[in-house]
Design brief:
TPR-like_helical_dom_sf, TPR repeat, Cell_Envelope_Assoc, Serine Threonine Protein Phosphatase 5, Tetratricopeptide repeat, globular, YdcF family protein, alpha/beta, single chain, Rossmann fold, Rossmann-like_a/b/a_fold
């Protein structure tokens, strides 16, 4: 009964604390959040059923993925003898423990590899994918992930081997991903604009401004304000264009989209020009949820506005989301994208350079947008 009560309490905690879209979550007090973390950090005992221990580790991993928590407490009570440096260390080690309990579950291994990719532990992630392929050589996703992440770090030999294997497994699907990759590589080399492009369409055009995490008090941080300034410059030059503000994580009951909309209106933008996308929690969801609104509005031309360090990833996932919606609706993908950036580099020349780390993240989010979940069944 004691164990059941603990599980019920954990389920209630997670139901409340992971509801990132709700304004109720934004009102949770600091003491309550601290108590939630303590519940998640409850020691896992070997006399508990194995399936429940695995679920507890998965719940812990996702809790820390979203919220972080008391690292020292987790280090002391759960992962004894392991030094933890941050919340993703907790996520990684939780999945490692789950994998030990069920070495047959490939989804747990995929989740472990994803956490290693987030931490840029690429060689370790590639080793985890290799384990998956040792057990399931025909696994399309494992071959694809291993191949693209090998390409991202410059291992073209392994990439070519993966592509060859993918064509043997499913040639049509492999060629579809090669096309996605070709589009992505062209995006990576795209010129960045710090001023509104000339000759944008006067109708069926939208400006999509991507959000940035709000401060704890619900106020906007500098990167978001700078993105809005870049967006409003286009809005004034193209007064017929709709403006989609995209971002759903709330702070103090207000989402990024709400804050952005309010700011634009104080700068003279009419409320009926603004479309709120207030459900997304990251760049992939920015793209998927904003594209649904672009489809609804019949908009063919889009100018994406975000930071220079973010724009290539944004363009990649918006292109992929547009291709998906076109396929979903049985039509050809014909949406065109331009960009305007807030320059968060010392110079535009520096902004045009692309590091291996950025390519790694671009490929990761391309795959996520294409429907391959980062944490299968848990988190896109």
């Amino acid at each position: 009964m004691k164990y059941l009560n603990k599980k019920l309490a954990l389920a209630l905690v997670l139901t409340i604390s992971t509801a990132t879209f709700s304004t109720a979550y934004a009102a949770v007090s600091e003491p309550t959040m601290a108590a939630n973390t303590e519940t998640v950090n409850t020691a896992i005992k070997n006399d508990e059923p194995t399936s429940d221990r695995i679920e507890h580790y998965k719940e812990m991993a996702m809790y820390y993925y979203w919220h972080g928590g008391d690292i020292k407490q987790a280090e002391k009570e759960i992962f004894k003898g392991i030094t933890l440096k941050g919340k993703y260390d907790v996520v990684e080690n939780a999945f490692k423990e789950a994998v030990l309990l069920d070495p047959y579950d490939l989804d747990l291994k995929f989740s472990l590899a994803s956490t290693q990719i987030i931490q840029k532990k690429t060689s370790e992630a590639l080793g985890t994918y290799e384990q998956i392929l040792n057990l399931d050589p025909e696994n399309f996703n494992a071959n694809l992930l291993q191949g693209l992440y090998s390409k991202a770090i410059g291992d073209n030999s392994s990439y070519k081997n993966s592509i060859s294997k993918l064509k043997q497994i499913d040639s049509k699907k492999a060629n579809e991903y090669l096309q996605k990759l070709e589009t992505t590589d062209s995006v990576i080399n795209e010129k960045l604009n710090t001023a509104p492009p000339a000759n944008l369409p006067q109708k069926d055009h939208a400006i999509v401004i991507l959000g940035y995490a709000l401060a704890e008090d619900g106020s906007m941080k500098e990167p978001l304000i700078e993105r809005l300034k870049a967006g409003i410059a286009i809005a004034k030059q193209y007064p017929n264009s709709k403006i989609i503000v995209s971002g759903g994580v709330p702070k103090q009951g207000i989402t990024e989209a709400d804050a952005m909309s309010n700011w634009l209106q104080t700068q003279g933008i009419e409320k009926d020009r603004i479309i709120l996308e207030n459900k997304s929690t990251d760049t992939v969801e920015n793209a998927l949820f904003s594209t649904e609104k672009l489809e609804k509005e019949g908009i063919k031309d889009v100018t994406l506005v975000t930071s220079a360090s973010h724009i290539r990833r944004a363009l990649t996932v918006f292109n992929e989301a547009s291709d998906f919606y076109a396929k979903l609706n049985g039509k050809n993908s014909d949406r065109d994208f331009t960009n305007v950036v807030y320059l968060d580099y010392p110079s535009i020349e520096e902004a045009q350079k692309v590091s291996k780390d950025e390519i790694l993240v671009i490929y990761r989010d391309l795959l996520r947008t294409s429907g391959i979940w980062q944490y299968p069944g848990l988190q896109r």
